Task: structure prediction
Amino acid sequence: MFKRFATVSLLTLMIGAAQATTLRVGVQEDPDALDPALSGTYGGRFVFASLCDKLVDIAPDLKIVPQLAQSWEWAADGKAITFTLRPGVKFHDGTALDAEAVKFNIERMKSMPDSKRKAELAPVSSVEAVAADKVRLVLSEPFIPLLANLSDRAGMMVSPKAAKEKGADFAAAPVCAGPYQFVERKSRDLIRVKKFADYWNAGAIAYDEVVYYYIADSTVRLQRVRAGDLDLAERIAPTDLKAVREDKNLALHSAEGLATSHLMINVANGPKADSPLGKNAKLRQAFELSIDRNVINKVAFNGEFVADNQMVPPSNPFYDASHKAPARDVAKAKALIASAGMSRVPVELTFGNTSADARVAQIVQSMSGEAGFDVKLLPLENASATDRYLNGNFEMYIGNWSGRPDPDASLVVFFGCQGSQNVNKYCNKELDDLLTEARGAADEAKRKQLYAQATGILVTDLPTIPIYHPNWFFAARKNVEGIVMVPDGLLRLTGMKPGK
Amino acid sequence: MLSTLLRRLGVALPTLLLVSMLVFGLQKLLPGDPAIALAGEERDPDVIAYLREKYRFNDPIPTQYIAWLGGVIQGDFGNSVRTRLPIGTMLAEKLPVTIELAVLSMIVAILIGLPIGIIAALKRGSVLDYGSSFIGLVGLSIPNFWLGIMLILLFSVHLGWLPAGGYVAPSESLFGNLKSMLMPAFVLGTSTAAMLMRHTRSAMLQTMRQDYVRTARAKGSREKDVVVTHALPNALIPVVTLGTLQFGELLAGAVLTEQVFSIPGFGKMIVDGVFSRDYAVVQAVVLCTAAFFLLMSFLADVAYTLLNPKLRG
Result:
């Protein structure tokens, strides 16, 4: 009798243990190509967090922490960095991750014609496999932000064997070294990944399977979590947060983000730069004084985002707290407009017609109008708006930049004279020198000081007027445990587990 | 019958070709450079230049069109520029889903629209008639998106009876499939039902005034027989035509419904394709939809002929 009881109990236990646990996640965006070299979307990065480990990762406080590399060492002149790789790491096809594999990956990302990682890896001039577990990246110039770049797609390692064999088809079924391996993708529907048994940190991975469902609408995503169809949904709109907080089955997880929404002003690119705001920094200052960022945040986003005047968010260690956003001052704005010899200032504001940007544009129009700005709104479908923006065909434009952990990638891109997104052709030699110097400064305090100086120039010259930083909001069922929010807004599966 | 079929086919092929040309040309008029849309947030100028070259965006439009058409004739729709997945596979995945949705919502529309339309006509001027007009008006004016969200709130969030969205393939679970399609089919079906109801009512009213109906009554036929055997088949002719064409419309009208219920069908595919300027995807979907529409109008003709003996021969 006892024996039978024991057998039954054991069987029950085994069935319980064998029951596969699936995490169902609702994502806002259908990822693009699933190849770290080609991916250009947040949606892609979100899925890569389960598929492809990186050389290094960022912690919630934005510090760089080990992932595939256990440690690293900068050369004294800042022109080389040597990584010591974690031992025993395998790709999903069973091949080993060694120094040669890292070399292959960095070279692949630098040489593939449609690789989107070229700019991030531009300072890397060569890669040397020093030993099986040691790889050195030699740089053409000191470039400290490289580490932060390697915490994103540029640092994701794919299996050289699979990449060579699959060629252009690699993106359809990627092979990396992350906690989960690719199973299937139904385009514009779902992506399924399953736990990789040989993962180096397999003990910290609890869910057997993760399915990412593409559901574009925030409200629909939330309803599906509430109905129990999904365990978690990312990017819940601020207007839906009340419903999450009131639902006792759900938990709200949030983090300050790296992204910035800003009003880019065309100061020197083509005929559209020939506007009062484009020519006169005093008028740009007046414009900034005419708006109240807190009110924008309150009205458009229920006060759930962070109102701010810099491209780098306050959560970043390099944020410069000494240049706080000025309070709204209509009288001073009017005085500045008068000192420029004007009474009404025409402004054309172009933006991609999303509900968030449209709300911001309308509030900005109404507030600045009180000071003397006649803002004409020009909402366009997103691809058309982006096209105009990149071609300098705008006076003022609502830009949405996803941000990067290192300030270099947010400042040089937009305000360096040769920056890849310097679409308003703003060029300030002094600022350019400061940003270049900050790239090579290994000392963190020194870098901080340089970025503070750079910020001082930016908030006076105002080639762009940052408005707010969005926060990340995940709605999850209460029984999803171990969610750690990081400013990059990606869902890290390590440490997550199903609770009761 | 065979000659009709061949004649229709002779018209259908050039029509398809024309549609594909039009869509191809119109897409190129869309503002927004596809290479930029594809380059992602990094917008590396070298990558943009490479993509333009690789996908022939620099070639003259007719050259691009011929290259594309050449592939399609050989059954190759190319790869999605955005995801690199083969479009042929995508079509094979999505088309059955949307057709299923359209069929189910047509069934919903017929189950609701036809009986109410007939009753409204027979009880003309009564409370039932006005009531049905009112229901029809409501059905037509409620936006699918809103109705969808409301149904999700009621049946999924509060009652927990139905899944709030997503698609279960019939091969996975037939019951699960029906459960996942019930609300979307209802939402999509209601607006068609309203249309169907109005047309059934007016067609029925017209038929009931015809001489042969009066004759049938004069011969002493029971009212039920007059309606079912004499009036209804004739009244159904315009309704069937409309219904078949409406079915074609359903395929296109599924866009919002698929969005609300996150059903991976044609609607979602084309919307995403347009926004990411994934031209080849949009082309393929439009071509398929056009082919489907032509097929439906052909079937409408066949049904018309079968129902109306005067048109046979």
Observations:
- Chain B touches chain A through 50 residues (CB under 8 Å).
- The radius of gyration of chain B is 24 Å.
- The CA atoms of residues 35 and 48 of chain B lie 5 Å apart.
- The longest helix of chain B spans residues 223-260.
